[in-house]
Amino acid sequence: MTNNKDKTLGETLRSQGISRRSFLKYCAATASMMALSPAMIPKIAHALESARRPSVIWLSFQECTGCTESLTRAHTATIESLIFDAISLDYHHTLQAASGHAAEEAREAAMKENFGKYLLVVDGSIPMDNPGYSTIAGISNYDMLMESAKGAAAIIAVGTCATYGGIPHANPNPTGAVSVGDLIKDKPIINVPGCPPIPVVITGVLTHFLTFGTIPELDHIGRPKVFYGQSIHDRCYRRPFYDKGLFAETFDDEGAKKGWCLYKLGCKGPTTYNACATTKWNDGTSWPIEAGHPCLGCSEPDFWDGGGFYKSLSMPTENIAQTAVYAAAGAVAAGVALGAMNKSKKNSAAKAHNKTTIDDLEK
Amino acid sequence: MNEIEFLSWVRGQGFQIAVIIFIAGVIIRFAEILLLGRKANIAEAKGSEMSGGMRTIVSRSFPDKNTFQRSTFTVVAGYIFHIGLFVTIFLFAPHILMFKDVIGFGWPSLPTPIVDAMAVVTIIALLAVLTHRMRDTVLKFITTKEDYLVWMLTILPLITGYMAFHRIGMTAPTLLAIHILSVELLLVVFPFTKLMHAFTFALSRWYNGAISGYRGVQS
Amino acid sequence: MSETTPHQPDAVKFNIQIGDTLTHNVKPLLHEIKHALDKLIETGKSTIIDLRSIPLAPGEEEKILNTLGQGEVQAQLNALGLSEITETQYAGVWIVTHYNDEQHVISRFIEVTTMPEILCSQTEDVMEAYSRLTLDLADT
Ligand code: SF4
Ligand code: SF4
Questions:
Q1: What is the spatial distance between Cα A194 and Cα B208, in angstroms, rounded to a whole number?
Q2: Residue from B20, B36, B96, B199 to probe the interface with A (highest A Cβ count within 10 Å)
Q3: Which tens digit of pLDDT belongs to each residue from B190-209?
């Protein structure tokens, strides 16, 4: 493995007996995966030919391993696994065989050897209230992140926890969880949110970095525009029903069976930017809305605190009826008091008012 | 604050604050008006206050021929934007969901394209009304700053709502949040400006009708 | 869903039936193909359309494939899993489907060209073949 590091990807593949035709197929699949135009295929082929295998260090903090699970789903198939042959995953404490000190040594060695060049991937949020909430080999998440970030060429934050705090950060945020971007300001960070992110989006971003050695174009909250450039709602195949005003009212009514829009069931598609509607899940089999469930908005900050998954976007998140009743009760009292004051003012004004007499007019 | 936090705030606390001010404001204004009372009328009644008052509440909704001929534009444009406001506020499916959440019941919605078209018509009518106001010397003279403010706050939710629906210019969460915020602004100033006429029109018409009814004349 | 499960609940099937009613992306795509054919005739330039980049309702992809139909050529590729390359009933319009080892579709393209690039023998492979044959002949 180690001696492969100096070879370009093209050389590595050729030494594995992979034909040019296979390589072209790989490039076509890669272009499709990175949501790039097919016109880019020759460019991708050229770039991949000469790409070198970057060292990747993967850190997992306060997370549920869902992101890694998602990623390994993309790992089973030949084409995608080529991408993993194409990188050198030097540290990933869930996937690697080594553990404890041996693992930490591997991380330190990789960091030293590739200082300034390695790619740091992070999933999970970082607890700031008490470092003891989450540690690896006795090292707090914060320390490990800061130390590993120093020599990184770029950081990819994978999953909504690492990108925006995610579920640990949900109200009342018991661990004081923060995102990678909250702590690190001096490195390029690519945010790949989702709970979990779509597997091919993770590999797509990795591949982009691998292929072009650059950071893809990001939106205002750090997400690659190729995957997060359009909202679920704008690419949703149920959109014609939304536009016509045809909604499923419950999960089992006629509308639901006819595949009408899920807005009334709480769909967050209109405010959520992710690739589900086109890339879909499970190798393009289907996706949540196609399966009849509204979008939860999992790739957006604070999606867990959006007032309930089944509450429509146009509904207020607080109990407004109760607020209104309290406001009304208070106001009635205040109104009566004010009214009484005004009335007494009026009465005294009336009393103070002198009647005009003939004498006055003759003055 | 990121855009999703902004959206959460306007859907949560912001909405709460706006509703408190709106409800409290409206009730206090009503209490003030009603508790002030009127002087007892010592003239002999020549007809019924109640029937005259009630009739006027309805009858003043239709312009008489003279008024119509004198200010056709004001009447027509006024009608259009009032009906338009009613349709866009109360017959758009997502809005009805909001009402249902707050008051516990909903009602059928109009198809979205109709509401969409109505929004455009309403915006045009409001623009026309303003242009008319600015070009007419007398009208312009009697227009106060408050009038312009009220006009602004009325057209803003329409424009932001249209933009949010068609997703023009900004990201979707920001557009939606701005739309909700514009409605909250409207709610907040509502009780303290002439927007109150949405409620008080009934009272004042009733008074007018009642006075005439008492005198036994037609209002 | 096969015939072996006759009593499946409605909820499982509902999505598939609406394919016919939701064709807002099918027509434009077919028109795009027509333009691409025109371009091929006029300038000889080919066009590739990535089917994954288009939001399609359940059943719409099948609809597109059915409309394009089967033509004269059907080829199979064995490179990192299977690939199917078929000419549709409209000559010059090809469907290229790449599968992985597990027979999952990993990408599907509509290529408007006289010959999809991936079918041609690649220069690198030809060169490699030449040296291999040379070696093999030298051995015997
Ligand atoms: S189901 Fe959701 S994303 Fe799709 S059209 Fe309806 S609201 Fe938009
Ligand atoms: S449909 Fe929405 S909630 Fe579901 S995975 Fe996609 S972005 Fe996340």
A1: 62
A2: B20
A3: 999 988 888 887 777 777 77
With a CB cutoff of 8 Å and minimum separation 6, the contacts of A145 are A59, A61, A122, A126, A180, A183, A184
The string of pLDDT tens digits covering residues A264-284 is: 999 999 999 999 988 888 877
Q: In chain B, count of helices (H) and strands (E)? A: 11, 0
Number of domain units in chain B: 1
**Per 3-state DSSP, what percentage of chain B is helix, strand, and coil (rounded to 5)?**
80, 0, 20
Domain of residue B91 covers 3-36+65-215
The CATH number given to whatever domain includes residue B179 is: 1.20.950.20
Residues of chain C positioned with their CB less than 8 A from the CB of A83? none
Q: Are C106 and A26 within 8 A, CB to CB?
A: no
Largest CA distance in chain A: 122
Interface of A with B in 308-347 (CB under 8 A): 311-318, 320-321, 323-324, 326-328, 330-332, 334-336, 338-340, 342-343, 346
Which protein residues touch ligand 1 with a CB less than 6 Å away? Answer: A 232-233, 236, 238-239, 242, 261-263, 267, 269-270, 289, 295
- Domain A232-305 in CATH 4.10.480.10? The answer is yes
Q: In angstroms, rounded to a whole number, what is the distance separating the alpha carbons of residues A198 and A280?
A: 8
Confidence (pTM):
0.80
Taking alpha carbons only, the member of A13, A34, A35 closest to residue A24 is: A13
Amino acid at B193: T
- Neighbors of chain C by Cβ distance (3+ pairs < 8 Å): A
Alpha carbon of A231 to ligand 2 centroid (Å): 10
Rounded distance between C-alpha atoms, residue A86 and residue A8, angstroms: 9
Domain boundaries, chain A: 4-228, 232-305, 328-363
CATH architecture of A4-228: 3-Layer(aba) Sandwich (3.40)
Residue C4 forms part of a structural domain: no
The total number of structural domains that make up chain C:
1
Q: Does residue A246 have a pLDDT over 70?
A: yes
Residue C95 lies in a domain: yes
